[in-house]
Design a protein that fits this description.
alpha+beta; Glutaredoxin; 5 helices; disordered N terminus
Length: 155
C-alpha cells in the first residue's frame, strides 16, 4: 500500500509538465496568413498541450464580431478555447488554464491588447519581457484587469 507521502509526491510530479499532464482542451484559432507572431502563439498553445485548429483567414474582423470582442481590446489574432472561452491576442496558456479552472463568473473572454514584448509569440531575443495585464471581458463588453503578467508567467 502506498503511503500518503508517496501518493502526494506522485500527484505533484504529474503537475510538472503542463503539456504532458493537462487535459487537451480544444483551441480554435483564427489568424492572418502573413503574421509570424500568431504562428508563435499557436506553437505556444500546442507546446502547452492544447489541441489547436489553426484557421488562416483573409480577415479576422468577422470572427471578432462573432465572438463579441470589445473593440478596445483588439490585438493580433482571435481564438475560442473549450468551445466557450474567447481569446484576443497573445494570452498565455497559464492564464487560459487558470480561467478555465476558476470558471470566472460572467467572464466570456480574455485579451492581451496590443502586442507586449515577451508574451508567447512576441519573444524578442535580447529584450526583457514587458509587464502587462490580461484583461477579462463580460458578455456586455465591460472588462477589467484580471492578471498581471510578465512574459508567459505571473508577475
Amino acid at each position: 500500500m502506498l503511503s500518503r507521502r508517496l501518493v502526494t509526491i506522485a500527484s505533484l510530479s504529474m503537475l510538472a509538465g503542463p503539456a504532458r499532464t493537462q487535459s487537451r482542451e480544444s483551441a480554435e484559432v483564427w489568424r492572418d496568413p502573413n503574421c509570424g507572431c500568431c504562428a508563435g502563439w499557436v506553437a505556444h498553445l500546442r507546446e502547452e498541450g492544447f489541441a489547436v485548429t489553426d484557421r488562416i483567414v483573409p480577415s479576422v474582423t468577422p470572427i471578432r464580431r462573432m465572438l463579441g470582442t470589445p473593440s478596445d481590446l483588439l490585438s493580433c489574432h482571435a481564438a475560442r478555447i473549450a468551445g466557450w472561452l474567447k481569446i484576443e491576442g497573445h494570452v498565455p496558456a497559464l492564464a487560459i488554464r487558470r480561467a478555465l479552472a476558476e470558471n470566472l463568473p460572467s467572464v466570456v473572454g480574455l485579451a492581451v491588447p496590443a502586442m507586449p514584448i515577451g508574451t508567447p509569440g512576441m519573444e524578442v531575443p535580447g529584450h526583457e519581457p514587458e509587464f502587462y495585464d490580461v484583461i477579462a471581458w463580460r458578455a456586455d463588453g465591460s472588462h477589467f484587469a484580471w492578471l498581471r503578467m510578465r512574459g508567459a508567467k505571473l508577475a
